[in-house]
Amino acid sequence: MQIKDYLGGIGNIYTNTNDSKFTVRSLDDILKIIAHFDNYPLITQKKADFILFKEIILKIIEGEHLSARGLQEIINIRASINLGLSDYLKTIFPNTVTVARPLIENITIPHPE
Question: Which CATH number applies to 41-107: 3.10.28.10, 2.40.50.100, 3.40.50.2300, 3.40.1410.10?
Answer without folding.
Answer: 3.10.28.10
